[in-house]
Amino acid sequence: MAEKILIIDDDVDTLRLVGLMLQRQGYQISAAANGQQGLDKALEESPDLILLDVMMPDMDGYEVTRKLREDPQTADIPIIMFTAKTQLDDKVAGFDMGADDYLTKPTHPSELQAHIKALLSRSGLREKKAAMQRAQTIGVLAVRGGLGVSTIAMNLAAAIFTRSKADVALAELVPGRGTLGMDLGMANQKALVKLLSGTPSEITRDRVSNALVPHISGVKLLLASENPADVYLINQVAQYQALFEKIISLARYVVLDLDSALPPFSQKILPSCKDIVVVVEGVPNSIAHTKILMEELTKMGIRKERITVVLNHRIRSDTQLPISVVEEKLLGHPITVTITPVPELLTQAVRMQNAAILCQPDGVFTKQFMILADHVIQNESFWK
User: Fold this and answer.
1) What phi and psi, each to the nearest 5 degrees, are found at residue 286?
2) Quick count: other Cβ atoms within 10 Å of Cβ 214?
3) For residues 122-148, average pLDDT
4) I want to staple 47 with a disulfide (CB 3.0 to 4.6 A). Which of 6, 206, 343, 364 is the partner?
5) Is the pLDDT reported for residue 380 higher than 90?
């Protein structure tokens, strides 16, 4: 796709001539005749580079640059200031405001092209570096509700933090079905609802960062609301994609509580998760249904090796099938860990408003989650 250049200049001749010249070089051109219009277009279109005149009425190029750099959505867009002002102090002022390059009018077309090409090249390298720093993202889901997805997501996140001491974020992503807020003494959380209720462009990195609430477990939390009426927001697929792109830049590990089934937003997000934890219960119908879920995941292009199956024994019962039978019914897919039933510990965790593994650090339940956390952490280097 052709790179987009936004030209902000009140001189109509400059807009026309420079725009035409750059179009002939294969760039996609957008134009704005004043500073405010330029700011609006930068937010709306996210250009790859901005060519900005300094001398404009109402809002000059220095002020436009300052506003662009203050907004997280536009802060990283390369800016070339393009002006008739030649004084050294003017250039210094431009760089102080955050300009990446400075050219004086008149500029030969070949010089302008060379500066644009060099700046876009450096910007591309920065983007590649940023992409390499994206979080290790773990999606946790089950084929239906009631299988302990949120409990597993919370304890997995706490275990990863305990093992790695790195930044860990947990996002409970289905509004209206939130349970962690009440369990952790943080009920009535509205941040996710507010994010999903706006436009994708309003979901900035800063807004997502501010929505993450620190918890005593060491994990930062984005919690879903408890109001069932909020569940309609699961249809905001574009907002979910924007949220995903922002949150994975805010922590080393991001655990996503995707609840159950495969709504459209999950289908968009899951292929970008490096690990997918599927929770299954050891009873025939749950296993058969989970097999269908895993088949759908493979149809989405998710390789079998990226799917981690957790067998969750929520209750003490002789009807629970042994691990070997579950693996056989899942066509040989290995069970990474089996979670034993600990109703008393889970009750204690709610009373202490903490992750269960931190309420009994030396218990079997905790050791099982440490195995799962180690598996996820080891996968980080495997998938690089």
Assistant:
1) -60, -40
2) 9
3) 76
4) 6
5) no
